[in-house]
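Regression test attached.
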Amino acid sequence: MNFYLTYVLVASALFAFTALFTLFALYSERKISAFIQDRLGPMEVGKYGSLQAFADILKMLQKEFIIPTAADKILFILAPIIIFVSVYLGFAALPWAPGLIPASLNLGLFYIFAILSIETLGILMAGWGSNNKYALLGSMRSVAQMVSYEIPAGISLLSVVMISQSLNLQEITIRQGILTSEAVNFLGIWDVKAIGGILAWNVFQAPHLIVAYIIYFIASLAECNRAPFDIPEAESELVGGFHVEYSGLRFAFIFLAEYSMMFLVGMIGVVLFLGGWNSPLPNISSVSLATWTTGIGWGIFWILTKTLCVVAVQIWLRWTLPRFRVDQLMSFCWKVLTPLAFLCMLISGIWRLTMM
Amino acid sequence: MIEKVLNVFKTVVKGLKLTLGHFFAATESRKVKPISDPGYFSQKTGTTTIQYPHIKLPVPDVGRYQLDVEMDDCIVCDLCAKICPVDCIDIESIKSTEAIGKTSDGTTKRLYAAKFDIDMAKCMYCGLCTVVCPTECIVMTDTYDRSMIDLSEMTYKFSDMTAAEADEKRLALEKLNAERLASKQAAMQQNTDNKI
């Protein structure tokens, strides 16, 4: 019976983390956007507006659930739950530190990608269920975009999997640091198994993975519907996109899913390309920085830092680049990213056969 | 093709640099200076937000905001009410029986203002009334943030007379008029008598 308790504890810890992260990301996004635009952002609630996100969430909790008369009630009510749960379940297979992973699945990466595609379904349900033309347009765009961008993202991840020879995210992470039992070569030539650090990360083990990472990063932006790929929400064209009709807690859940998704895709990228919980500091002869900075606490610290940096870049990009047009978005995915991702996969295969 | 790709990267990097520059410049905010300050336009970096209720942008004493009337200087000439494009000034004057006094610029006051109402909800802040005023008693002040709970509070009443005083003056005027009329009639009567 005890393991049920563990399950519940792990699940609540992950939920608490996503909720806290969302509040933090909400505040930091507002602040970063404000600073980029020479504004101050929230300043009134708490010191420097630090409690603004809590105030917002309190406001949302008090709001009434509104279901439009013409809406499909079942789809409308289920959609936010499906959207959030699909993202939330993705966290189950992500490694946080050596030996610390909610569920060490052999098919971890495959599972995450499978469960993330369900979010598309939720968005379509939200758009269709709202019975609102803007919501439907937004969700249609969103589905087209997410289905398309899953291909370059998936293929660029496959090129990592070909190098790592595993779908287990914990194993992929271990193979990028000093804890591995296999050979780790920097750029395929210099053995850095004992040195570790930044040199052992996947992007430096095989340089074409840098391209794969860029492809994955761009595709992941599209998958979490963020600018410059935010046409599903496109405030200026579609009011609010697929979630126009949602209010109160349901809207909060869609929001929660969106921000958790940012963290999730960032973390997948970090685990697969940027060394996961491995320390970026290398062992330099007797100064074994990598060995000192590897452990459960350090692991959590490193992966959080790396992922938050990636999230910061996502926010930074959002407030810099203008939105893509629908046709540009599609042609960029199918004509640029997908061929490039295939090329990366091909190089991975050759790399595996010749360099390793 | 390659040139196009390079251009994409170049422009993206340029944009990212620009926003990052602004992001790091946000550690300081621009000083709140009045427009008359010579350095007003020379502050190029930092956040521009003025945290309004706590900090206010300094404005000139005579700005283009709320209207104010110095009743001691007002000669109740009604020019402001006449020029007002939106008719927001409502004046009711009572002729005085004798000269009331002098304004600060030496004009003799001969009219009482029984009513001098300005409806600031109607006012369009054109400032024409302040231009035509011969004694410069109606001015625009630097007060601008005025919100009221009731719409009637937007009507500012400047008249310094109570209703009783106004009635008294009205009676005095009527009495004087009646006396004048009586004396006139008496004079006319005398004239006709003389002719006969």
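Expected vs. actual: identical. Chain A is about 65% helix and 0% strand.
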